[in-house]
Amino acid sequence: MVTRRLIGAALLAAISAGAQSTGFNVANIDKSAEPCSNFFQYACGNWIKNNPIPSDRSRWSRFEELAARNENILLDILQTSAVKTNGSPIEQKIGAYYTACMDEKGIEAKGLTPIKSELDRIAALKDKSGLADLLERQHAFGAAPLFNFYARVDYKNSQLMIGWLDQSGLGLPDRDYYFRDDAKSAEIRTKYVDHVTRMFSLAGYDAAKAASAAKAIMSLETALAKASQDRVARRNANNLNHPDTVDGLKALTPAFDWKRYFDKSGTTSLRNINIANPEFFKILNELITTTTLDDLKTYLTWHLLRVAAPTLPSAFVNEDFDFNQRVLTGAKEMRPRSKRCIIAVDRDLGEALGQKYVELAFAGNSKAKMLDMVRGLEKAMAEDIRQIDWMTPETKKRAIEKLEAITEKIGYPEKWLDYSKLAIASDDALGNLLRANEFETRRNLDKIGKPPNPKEWSMSPPTVNAYYSSQLNSINFPAGILQPPFFDAKLDDAVNYGGIGAVIGHELTHGFDDSGRRFDAKGNLLDWWTPADGKEFEKRASCMEKQYSEYVAIDDVRLNGKLTLGENVADNGGLRIALMAYLASIAQNRPDKIDGYTPEQRFFLGWGQVWCSSMTPEAERLRAQTDPHSPGRYRVNGVLSNMPEFQQAFGCKIGQPMVRGDNACKVW
């Protein structure tokens, strides 16, 4: 299903020894900065100064800070479960996974033995007719060579899960990494080839054969990248909606044995399918035909090694870190093994670990408090829609219908995922990873032909994030984010509305951003806008696209206003409706100043401080090119420079950087 998240990825990170603050704090404010010149620096300057990026991180923010506190809880749960002799089935499972992951000595002793049978299976491939079997197996194990196959809600019938085929198969972070002609991109491509070469050398290839393998992989991946849609094109669901029959797919890609692939994947009865990028599969057919069998086997070996690397001996782990973290993100050190194992358990047994987390860390009244705030935000957004002067009554009516149809999931699932059929062993780290991936793959594909489960979550409870689902028309807030600095029951409502209130508003607004607006109240891809209203939306969205495209991420790299448009629309609209909801809540009883700040000033400080963050130059570059979210400083300054309410609260004048004036952008 289509989801729009508050941040680019779930964050479970190690906290540095020196990080201190846990929530909103006026001590984080840099009073030497001018709020009307750079509000991000004003709100966050002291936090940034006192919280340098840990050496095992490429980014440090309030998200990572909170995730690290959650991590301490998870570590205690896992360490306790690992030694418990009479634990519950859940405790036994998560304890065994953690034990196997932490068994560095055992992993070293086994070497490549745990993966040898899979490597031998690839080596034994005699002809391309057997490619379907190998690909299906690798896809089940969590690798994604050549293409991806999964269950997803039908764009045109939100009550049906169907099979989806999509582009995949790249080792670099994005298709454009294979083509950019700047010096940094060329350097990364060279280092990627070196990385692949070293990984094959570790797998036992001699120097010449390893170098040849890396060259073949780079050639094939570049061809796949050329056939792939870019990230901006994929933001428009219409570019991904290409329903077809399996017979049509076979005609498009006759060089691949689809019947054999679907039989092996347990989807024998599949008749209809969505091909997200037909042109990709047309070119894939040519690549399967023209690429030698040896090169295809080499490519499959590489993608298997990529998936397995974190659970292989330290030489593989170190090499994987060196390229994917040190080179791409600028992290100087690897995270401690315990932290990596926590992330692995959360990834593969998220709802099992999440049950224990919720028992310890999620207050019973948090759901009720969140629902009250959600209702207030929904009321404010409805009022905002009614007041809009550029939308016709017909489209306003449809927008209100969609808003009223949004459902909310808060904290954790009503029904926990059953892992009883997933075998976990305390001495088999790689096997646990592959079996967990296969468990999730089979569970996903089993949904084909059935209605979607509206109560299912796509994030684990400890996750410090939130998301909106276009096809379920739902907003979702895991327990992990319902803590300081986003929500703190001990603080005034102004700060909480600027924090979690704006997060709620952000997710609600995703239903009406450039991507979410294409889906109706039932989650179907349907244009419910009048042509005139659609043009008015695009005009206002283009203002925001232009605004953010002017921001420099690092050196010669600017933000991509088209890629970040949805998140920027959600930030701007979300904070506005959060302010509307907050002001409505204090209309009859206006609070006094606190710490010398008015309620409105504390609201904006609450927003500013949830985005306090720093990044390495490498991470700045990577995120600007791949992340649909703007950096924290622009999520603060970009939004507030568009808001007269902020400028009034802090007495900003025309001509100051935080006042865009006639150039201000507003969609919602």
Q: Overview of this structure, please?
A:
This protein is an alpha+beta fold and 668 residues long. Among the domains are: 198 residues, Neutral endopeptidase, domain 2, CATH 1.10.1380.10; 230 residues, 3-Layer(aba) Sandwich (Collagenase (Catalytic Domain)), CATH 3.40.390. Helices cover 52% and strands 8% of the residues. The chain has 25 helices and twelve strands. Strands 1-8-9-7 form a four-stranded mixed β-sheet, with helices on one face. A four-stranded mixed β-sheet has the order 3-4-6-5. A two-stranded antiparallel ribbon has the order 2-12. Helix 7 packs antiparallel against helix 13 and helix 8 packs across helix 12. The two termini are 24 Å apart. About 2% of the residues have low confidence.
Labels describing this entry:
668 residues, alpha+beta, Neutral endopeptidase, domain 2, Collagenase (Catalytic Domain), 4-stranded mixed sheet, 25 helices, 12 strands
What is the CATH level 1 assignment of the domain at 364-406 and 482-668?
A: Alpha Beta
Mean pLDDT: 95
Structural class: alpha+beta
How much of the sequence lies in strands comes to 5-15%
- Per DSSP E runs of 2 or more residues, the count of β-strands stands at 12
What is the CATH homologous superfamily assignment of the domain at 364-406 and 482-668?
Answer: Collagenase (Catalytic Domain)
CATH topology of the domain at 364-406 and 482-668: Collagenase (Catalytic Domain)
Please sum up the structure shown.
This protein is α+β, with helices and mostly antiparallel strands and about 675 residues long. It has helices at about 40-50, 60-85, 90-100, 105-110, 115-125, 130-140, 185-200, 205-225, 245-250, 260-265, 280-290, 295-310, 315-330, 335-350, 350-360, 365-385, 395-405, 430-445, 495-510, 530-550, 565-585, 600-610, 615-625, 630-640, 645-650, and strands at about 5, 60, 145-155, 155-165, 245, 270-275, 405-410, 465-470, 475-480, 550-555, 555-560, 615.
